[in-house]
Design a protein that fits this description.
- The chain contains eight helices and eight strands.
- With 216 residues, it is α/β, with parallel strands linked by helices.
- A five-stranded parallel sheet has the order 2-3-1-4-8, sandwiched between helices. Strands 6-5-7 form a three-stranded antiparallel sheet.
- α2 crosses α3 and α6 crosses α7.
- The protein starts with a strand and ends with a helix.
Amino acid sequence: MSARVVLLGPPGAGKGTQAALIAEAGVGAHIASGDLFRKHLGEGTELGALAKTYMDKGELVPDDVTIRMVLERMDEQDARDGYVLDGFPRTLEQAKALDDALGGQGREIAAALLIEVETEELVRRLAGRWICRNCQTPYHESFSPPQAAGRCDSCSGELYQRDDDKSEVVRARLETYERQTAPLVGYYESQGKLARVNGQQRVEQVTADLEAAFGA
C-alpha cells in the first residue's frame, strides 16, 4: 500500500486530518511542510538558519530551501517507501522543482489527491472558530458551540475571533489559494495523476475515497 502521494486542497478542507489518517493506514510518512519549518527553526539546523534569514526580512523562503527540507525528510527510514505530502507543493513552480529533484533520484509522485469543498462550506468551517481569551479553549459556532454565547464553558472567559478567522479574511485566503493552486491542479491533471475527492462527506468516507483514488 506504500505510495508517494501529494495531498491538495484549500484551507479548511481537512488536509491535515486526512493526511494523518491515510499515512497511518500504511501509505508511509506524513510530511507536513509547516512541521518541517518548525522543526528546523526550533533545532537551529543549517536549513532552519537559512530559512530564518529570509523570514526575518519578511521575504518568502525560496523554493530550493523548502525542497531541500522535504527531500531530507523523504530520506528518513519511515519515508523511504512512501509518504503523504501535506502543504507542499503549493505552486506550479514548486511542483516542477519537486519533480525535477525526484526524477534525478529515479523517483516520482504516484498521485495528487485534491480534496474539493465548496467555498461557502469552507467559510462556514473557518470563520466559525472562536477562542477563549483566558484559557485558549477553542469553540466553533456550528461544530462545538459554547453553552452561553460569547462565554467559555470552562472559565467563563470572553470568546474572541482571530483576525485570520474573520469571514472577509477567510475569503481572501481562499482567493489566494485558487490563484496559486489552479495551475498546480492542471499540472498534475496533465500527467494523469490527479484524483478529485468530495471533501464534504463524513471524515471516514473522505478517507476511503482518497485511499481508493490511488489504489490502496
